[in-house]
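Input sequence (268 aa), recorded before submission:
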Amino acid sequence: MADTSATLFVEGRSLVHGLNPLTKPAYILLAAALAYAPPVRTTAGTWLVCAALLAVNGGLLASSGTGGRAWSLLWKVMLPLALFMVPIHGLLHPDNRTALAAWHGVAVYREGLLFAGTVLLQVAVVLTASLLFVLCTHPADIVTSVTRAGLSPKIAYLVGSPLLMLPAMRARAASVQAAQRARGLDSEGGLTRRVRGLFPLVKPFLLGALMDIEQRAVALEVRGFNSRTARSAWREVRDSGAQRWARRLMLLGSLGLILYKAAGRPWL
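Predicted structure, token format:
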């Protein structure tokens, strides 16, 4: 079994895990098109479409066994975003007209809250769809599927490497911080002390990251990364005619929704 400790991938045998890696990005694109270019004009209709997509994504995440992991990542993104957007738009949105509450001359408006809620729902839809891809797809399968689709190995590595490098860099940052604390660095306490403790962490982290990049480059060259000969893959990535047709339909649907919105939704 492949080592997944340095990735966000969660091992499983669910329906989502078994899908071809190229099918999931097609679904992300369709979910984003439905969220940001829904075939409706009203805010209530947009909320209904986004709520339905969130229910579908949540069900798929739960059935794949990644619901808890997805939630621990989702709220860390959505909560700061909500704390930032809701007050700003509720108070200062340019379309604010209907005051819901006022206190000492400061009013919270309905239009701004609706706008903030809509944006948060749209972001949540894209994030949950993306988590389906990240948590249920091994990076090696992504590279293999992109290569087999006829694209350059450089593009395949560009797509797959962030899923491997970002968790590894996070682990490196934790190890650098633990090493510096063992040497007596005090990075706890107030904001000033935390800022002072940040600089001793940056230099070893950056140097280690550069060394890691150099080692990856050497490893790729040794394995003939720039070779023009046909490559074989030791990982078997399953695909089917139904999935290929589903990908085409999702891409066409996404393009149709975007063009429909660009045309001003002429049939509504």
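Checked by second reader. The chain has a mean pLDDT of 83.
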